[in-house]
Sequence to fold (194 residues):
Amino acid sequence: MNKAARTKQFIVEKTAPVFNEKGYAGTSLTDMTNATGLTKGSIYGNFANKDEVALAAFEYNIRQITDIIRQEKAKHDTYRGKLLAYVHTYNNFLKHPFPAGGCPILNTATEADDTHPALKERAAWALGKWKEAVMQDITRGILQGEFDKDTPVEQAALTILAMVEGCLMITKLTGKMHYRNAIMQSLETFIREL
Fold:
């Protein structure tokens, strides 16, 4: 990696938590320079504008979560176990290096749904990829005889995603961890009954 690529990566790594916590509209150039210790010229010498930085930061945050989930799923030999990895991961989120500010899909979708089409598109793409991965696990579980052959695959995948994202939103909004525990228990029951 050359110096320019390293600088660009440094900017992304340092601003990703800021964008995830403050959102696109709430993150100022001053926030970016404070996070990186670089000048405005250094940031905009590597990125055309704030949009490019925000999109790269979103991708970085998504990769962090994807890597965590992938590692946790790899610990399981069954497809039910792979789905339950979501429950165990989000129940023990403090043990993992999740992005500061929580789920970037939830944060970005909430902010960008009416204000930033490019970020909204990226968040929708990330959610779609996640849905595909869950559907693939369910389909393979059906083929292996782990899940009922009549399981509505897309509906089940969407339910899992909605329960995870809803759990994160409710817990973040209220600060009540027992809500997270209750929702994750419901998700575990749902997965075990597939």
